[in-house]
Design goal:
202 residues; alpha+beta; Wheat Germ Agglutinin (Isolectin 2), domain 1; 35% helix; five-stranded mixed sheet; single chain; two-stranded antiparallel ribbon; 60s Ribosomal Protein L30, Chain: A
């Protein structure tokens, strides 16, 4: 989908692009999700663990969400579920409110005329007039979607039975009895009277 120049020019959008490495629709979806999620919760970017995010995909959108929300793997308030869904849960530890955003299927439903023209372009069998027609349709569809705000991209599901993940655990590191490398104590397993890291369990 066409990404309007007005969106691309935003400073916080450019911060997402700089972190991710390139402009793409995936990052833009994450940008829209983070904007909407924080707006619905009335939250600012997380300094510590006051805000949490659960993503159900490992796609490009996750980078933008981390940049805007301040929720990261390292901070322990960014959680990944390997469901393959463009769905994102935002929750506040302060208010105990949460919301799940699911990308609407129609976002990537391309009108037949646009699809036909795109196929002609890919086959190098398009006239100048058809090329201009394609660009006009493509840009108009993107402008129309983005003009409606982030709400146009997602189905919104308020979470009433919020069960927040625990805060990031802290534990001392001790040596694995097999490889001798330092490991967070809670990640070790007892095997035959020895404390063993996950890499040495087998």
């Amino acid at each position: 989908m066409y990404i309007p120049a007005a969106i691309q020019a935003k400073e916080d959008y450019q911060a997402c692009i700089q972190f991710h490495g390139h402009t793409c629709m995936g990052v833009t979806i994450g940008y829209q999700a983070a904007k909407l999620g924080m707006k619905l919760l009335g939250e600012m970017r997380a300094v510590d663990e006051e805000l949490i995010v659960i993503v159900e995909t490992d796609a490009c959108c996750c980078d933008a969400i981390q940049v805007l929300t301040g929720c990261t793997f390292g901070k322990g308030n960014f959680f990944y579920l390997d469901y393959g869904k463009m769905a994102f849960t935002f929750a506040s530890r302060t208010t105990e409110q949460g919301v799940r955003l699911v990308l609407k299927p129609e976002i990537f439903q391309i009108p037949e005329r646009e699809k036909a023209l795109a196929e002609k372009i890919a086959a190098h069998n398009v006239s100048i007039a058809e090329q201009k027609e394609y660009e006009k349709i493509y840009e108009a569809r993107g402008e129309e979607f983005f003009s409606r705000g982030p709400e146009a991209f997602f189905d919104i599901e308020p979470i009433t039975d919020l069960n927040l993940p625990p805060k990031a655990p802290r534990a001392p590191s001790i040596a694995c009895d097999i490889c001798g490398e330092m490991v967070m104590k809670t990640k070790l397993t007892e095997r035959g009277g020895h404390l063993v890291c996950r890499g040495c369990q087998d």
